[in-house]
């Protein structure tokens, strides 16, 4: 595209969702889209990548301007990735040069000068590389990360949009299932295990601890990836709980592992980022308990249910997800590059927060674990400090509208942008 | 106790929860308790069995009159069994005579003349036997069943309290997880399987079908216990769905079985009623799909989460659960015996219902399966007739109050009634 034409029109922007979706990532999308609409004097069109960065590579772009204001508002209460997400990591510029060149080719063809990338640690690494690429390949693009991950393992930001809602889901579910097993324990189920997400960091498992506000309330034990699994200590504590309370509820992170680093249940497959896919900690523990103590058990694996559960989202989480989306656009227009909005906590009681920003490089590929002082000395519970941190994040409800008994989630039109390139790109 | 003393005071009543609990069984308890309070001119005290019928056998009774009106109101939004439930079946009068005699001994000691038993098929069998016992052993007790089961498999009644809420949970979760996998499918997960309860009857699995209102929406396949599992047909349909829609969502009943009657996943343990305990259909299917097609998968096992999920209960279900509790007391006071209130459907659109009654004998040990015309010809979906039946049952929300981000469920005082018998009874 000749420079003269670019000069005449306003530059366009690109937004993509990346990695595992959450129940509030679309609230961030709404924040980005509504902020771009508000600043239409400075940003032309906002294109979204169909299936994340894959949409950019294959020139499969969605014109967000074709969506009604009502549809964009409805994204705030709609889980999943409305434009599709992708588990697709770009390697170094040297190794994946063809892909970066393709990205620039597509950006150039559509006059895209802003790149909003909504994802977690791995995605921030990609965003950082796209920023560097722009400079190196002579097509500067303003790259802004938009934080998203249920795992809450991004550094710098106080918490991460997506986490508060899965935390609320897990805390509510633990309370409900805990009461269920308590009423069955006399003649039936004595042990209940809920396996939750959190490959490396135990934030989601920790959130299960919020369900218990009085002695004896579930969960009685939490298993964190940060604490080496000790079979004997665990079995002794299960027995103690059953003897004392009549039952035992365990919230176990999928990342629970031994001192040698062996995951309790390794499914043996790997995802696109090379991470081992987990699942099966709960049945492993259940069998262990059955063999040692003979207790009747039940277990649940929430899997996608926990991160998709917009019906029980945290209001704080929804608000923060929207706020970081909006802030991303404002940072871009303020001339920032290679940055990411973060949540800054001003106080815990009452909870007050604001949005700040950090260099993406400080976030990319880093993981924030649950600090040791958030975990009780015995390694099986959360401390008062953890509660102080976690509790505000699950505060408030933000129910979606319902129609005929089901949440009325929006489905976007997803109007395709006419392709300008003749070349194909196979992902 | 001498007859003269009984004649002076009003007879007392006994209420017990039985079998697996639900998110609305306490609403039935509230119905029974509030109706007894309303009729305190005719019913003295209402005692509840601690841990169901076990509480009667061991003379472990709770005096419900010690609970505040606010606490009883709060039962309407509190899941689990507030007094504890039991999986404990009484055999025939001949085989279990000592237990029946003990029941009468306890009832006599506390002047209990009304027996309200809140449970499913097996529990109605017990209620029927207690009614017969009273006549045979010379201590007549008015026995009224209060229907409860997530499985919806009780005959005569149009639907069963407990089912509507688990149906709503499964439909909502299927919609949410289905949207999640749809947004991941391009580069990651292509198949998602949700395993749901329903040992013999596929009502809960059928409810998952409500999530889909447009072609291509999840679930794409439903597996019912009523339809013999056909491996080849199933695998072909999974492939077709992935090719057509990019992904495939399966809702599978735990009771899915082959034409020979073999459960897909038999855990090999049995509960107190002699039923085989199931779990593991989802991983079995996932492995099957992976081996045949190589698709990346995720699966979830909701287990207790589905039946405890009061946070997403159906308003219709809560109302019906309360109504049958209240009706049970009214039937008893109208002089009925060995009956159970039932839900009578007057019309589906608009949904109108009322409470009728039936003889317990017509319900005990009977199971109502999903009729063939509710299942599509191919055996993998639900028909318009099924939708017409199911949709009203998940209508309306009935959110519990929240405190600090969590549902504010009530915990009763559970004041113990002073024991009158010297003899112990070991369950």
What order do the helices and strands come in, and which of them pair?
The structure is a homodimer of 427-residue chains.
Chain A: H1 3-8, E1 12-17, H2 25-38, E2 46-49, H3 53-57, E3 61-63, H4 69-74, H5 97-109, E4 112-119, H6 121-136, E5 142-147, H7 163-184, E6 191-196, H8 203-208, E7 221-223, H9 231-245, E8 248-253, E9 266-270, E10 276-278, H10 281-293, E11 297-301, H11 304-308, H12 315-333, E12 339-347, E13 352-359, H13 384-390, E14 402-403, E15 406-407
Q: Brief description of this entry?
A:
Chain A has 427 residues and is of the alpha/beta class. The first copy, chain A, has helices at 3-8, 25-38, 53-57, 69-74, 97-109, 121-136, 163-184, 203-208, 231-245, 281-293, 304-308, 315-333, 384-390, and strands at residues 12-17, 46-49, 61-63, 112-119, 142-147, 191-196, 221-223, 248-253, 266-270, 276-278, 297-301, 339-347, 352-359, 402-403, 406-407. Chain A has two domains: 3-148 and 312-366 and 399-407, 3-Layer(aba) Sandwich (Rossmann fold); 163-311 and 380-394, 3-Layer(aba) Sandwich (Rossmann fold).
Question: How would you describe this structure to a colleague?
Answer:
2 copies of one chain form a homodimer. Chain A is built from 13 helices and 15 strands. Chain A has 427 residues and is an alpha/beta fold. Chain A has 2 domains: 3-148 and 312-366 and 399-407, Rossmann fold (3-Layer(aba) Sandwich), CATH 3.40.50; 163-311 and 380-394, Rossmann fold. In chain A, α9 links the parallel β7 (221-223) and β8 (248-253). In chain A, α2 packs parallel to α12. The model of chain A is unreliable at 1-7 and 267-271 (pLDDT under 50). Chains A and B meet through α7, β11, α11 and β15 of A and α7, β11, α11 and β15 of B.
């Amino acid at each position: 595209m000749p420079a003269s034409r670019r000069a005449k029109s306003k530059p366009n922007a690109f937004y993509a969702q990346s990695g595992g979706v959450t129940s509030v990532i679309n609230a961030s999308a709404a924040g980005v889209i509504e902020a771009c609409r508000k600043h239409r004097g400075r940003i032309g069109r906002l294109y979204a990548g169909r299936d994340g960065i894959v949409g950019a590579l294959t020139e499969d772009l969605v014109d967000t301007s074709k969506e009604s204001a009502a549809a964009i508002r409805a994204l705030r209460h709609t889980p999943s990735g409305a434009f599709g997400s992708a588990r697709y990591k770009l390697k170094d510029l040297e190794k994946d040069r063809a892909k970066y060149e393709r990205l620039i080719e597509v950006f150039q063809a559509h006059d895209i000068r802003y790149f909003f990338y909504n994802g977690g640690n791995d995605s921030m690494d990609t965003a950082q590389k796209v920023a560097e690429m722009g400079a190196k390949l002579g097509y500067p693009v303003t790259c802004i990360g938009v934080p998203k991950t249920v795992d809450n393992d991004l550094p710098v930001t106080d918490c991460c949009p997506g986490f508060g809602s899965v935390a609320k889901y897990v805390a509510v579910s633990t309370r409900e299932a805990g009461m269920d097993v308590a009423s069955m324990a006399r003649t039936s189920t004595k042990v209940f295990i809920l396996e939750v997400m959190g490959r490396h960091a135990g934030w989601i498992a920790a959130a299960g601890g919020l369900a218990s506000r009085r002695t004896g309330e579930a969960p009685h034990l939490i298993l964190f990836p940060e604490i080496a699994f000790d079979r004997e200590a665990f079995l002794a504590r299960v027995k103690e709980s059953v003897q004392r309370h009549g039952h035992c509820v365990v919230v176990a992170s999928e990342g629970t592992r031994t001192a040698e680093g062996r995951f309790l249940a390794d499914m043996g497959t790997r995802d696109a980022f090379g991470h081992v896919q987990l699942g099966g900690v709960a049945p492993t523990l259940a069998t262990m308990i059955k063999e040692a103590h003979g207790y009747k058990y039940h277990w649940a694996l929430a899997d996608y249910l926990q991160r998709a559960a917009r019906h029980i989202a945290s209001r704080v989480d929804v608000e923060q997800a929207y706020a970081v989306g909006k802030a991303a656009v404002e940072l871009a227009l303020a001339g920032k590059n290679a940055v990411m909005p973060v949540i800054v906590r001003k106080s815990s009681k009452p909870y007050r927060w604001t949005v700040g920003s950090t260099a993406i490089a400080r976030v990319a590929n880093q993981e924030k674990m649950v600090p040791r002082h958030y975990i009780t000395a015995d390694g099986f519970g959360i401390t008062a400090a953890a509660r102080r941190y976690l509790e505000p994040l699950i505060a408030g409800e933000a129910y979606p509208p319902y129609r005929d008994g089901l949440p009325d989630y929006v489905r976007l039109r997803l109007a395709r942008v006419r392709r300008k390139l003749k070349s194909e790109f196979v992902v």
